[in-house]
Amino acid sequence: MQVLWFRCDVIIPSVSLGILVVSVLIGSFFFLHEIQHEPDTERNCNMAEAAQSNWERYRTEGHQAFVLGYTGEVGKELMKELAAAKLYKRVVLIGRRQVELDPSFGPEFEQKVVDFEKLEEHAEVFEGLDTGYCALGTTRGKAGVKGFVRVDHDYVLIAAEMAKARGCKHFSLVSSQGANKNSSMLYTRTKGQVEEALKVMHFDRISIYRPGVLMCDRTEDRPGERVARVLLKPISYLFPTAITTPTETVARALINNAVAPSERKEEVYENKAIHQLSGTSKLCGSQNYQETSKSK
Q1: Scanning 108, 151, 278, 286, which has its CA 20 to 30 A from the CA of 187?
Q2: Are 236 and 275 in contact (CB under 8 A)?
C-alpha cells in the first residue's frame, strides 16, 4: 500500500500565497468599483441634502401614489418610509393578496387586491394617482422562466401603461445592476427590456434604479441568497457602494428623488448614485436623511 506524503513546508506556503493573490485581486476589483466616478455626485448629494425642504413643499401639492410590489423587501421598506414621511394624500397598495399592515400606518394607505393576469379589468385602481413606485419582481427559481418574464416584464409594463392612461406623471422602477436589453443573461436582459419599454411610454418623468445585491433579512427563505449575503457582508462594510445595497437605502433614494424637482424626463441611477440619493453615501459628507427622519 502506497502512502502519499505531502511536504507541508511547500504546500502550505504555496496555498497561502495563492489565497493572498486571489484576495488582493478580489479586493482590487471591489476597490475599483467603489472609487468609480459617478458623474452626478453633486446633484445627487444636493437632492439628499434638500430632502427636508422638498418634503415640506411636496406635502402641500396634494400628490397621490401607488406602490406595486409592496410585499417584497424593497416594497416593505418603502412603505415604512412613506408612512413616516406622510408625503401623500393617498397611497394605494396594489397586490394580489391582502396583507396585515403595521398599525402605525395612517388612513392614507389602502390596499387594492387585483388579478395580475386580468390587470386590464382593474384599471380603476390607478385612477387619479400621479406617482407610481414599482418594486414588483420574482425569481426564476421560484416562478420558472415563463413565470419570471410574466411578472418582471409583462406585469410591470401592463401596469405602467394603465397607470399612464389614468394620469400617472412620474413612474419609478426598481430595476437591477447590470440591466441590459442585449444581455445574454435572462435576468439582466429582462430588466433591460423593461427599462427600454418604459422610456418610450413618455411619462412626464421616468426614474430607474439599478441597485446591487439587496442586503436585508428576507422573510422568504432563499438559501442561496442567504449564503451570498453572509459572504458579501464584509465586502459591503469595506466597499459599501460597490455591489451591495441595503433595501432601506433604495427606499430612501426613491423618496428623496420623487420629491425633488427635476427637469430630466429620464433618470437612471446606478448603485453608487442610489447611495448618494439616500443621503447615506460618505461622498456626500452627511447622514442627512437620518437627521431628517428624526426631525419628523
Answers
A1: 278
A2: no
Q: Is 155 helix (H, G, I), strand (E, B) or coil?
A: helix
Its domain, for residue 81, covers: 43-295
Structural domains in the chain (count): 1
In terms of pTM, does the model score above 0.90? no
Burial of 282 (0-12, 13-18, 19+ CB in 10 A): exposed
Does the active-site annotation cover 187? yes
Catalytic pick from 80, 112, 187, 199?
A: 187
* pLDDT tens-digit series, residues 217-244: 655 555 556 666 677 777 777 878 888 9
Q: Which CATH number do you get for residue 48? A: 3.40.50.720
Does the annotation count 58 as an active-site position? no
Catalytic residue among 70, 76, 133, 191: 191
**Residue 25 reports pLDDT greater than 80:** no
Q: Which three cell numbers stand for residue 115?
A: 388579478
